[in-house]
Automatic annotation (TrEMBL):
<keyword id="KW-0472">Membrane</keyword>
<feature type="transmembrane region" description="Helical">
    <location>
        <begin position="12"/>
        <end position="33"/>
    </location>
</feature>
<keyword id="KW-0812">Transmembrane</keyword>
<protein>
    <submittedName>
        <fullName>Uncharacterized protein</fullName>
    </submittedName>
</protein>
<keyword id="KW-1133">Transmembrane helix</keyword>
Length: 52
């Protein structure tokens, strides 16, 4: 009885691994797009606007 209870607990924990991986990929792509690409684009626009 205790073994099947432990196996269910492990199964429940391991079933969240794909969710965590997919969520981290989505969050990383959001970070890469919004913070890096948009920040770089704003810096690029600022540099060319301030030049005479």
């Amino acid at each position: 009885m205790a073994l099947s209870r432990a196996l269910r607990c492990c199964q429940r924990i391991f079933s969240w691994i794909p969710v965590i991986i997919i969520s981290s990929v989505v969050l990383w792509s959001y970070y890469a797009y919004v913070f890096e690409l948009c920040r770089g684009f704003c810096y690029f626009c600022f540099v060319f606007e301030t030049q005479p």
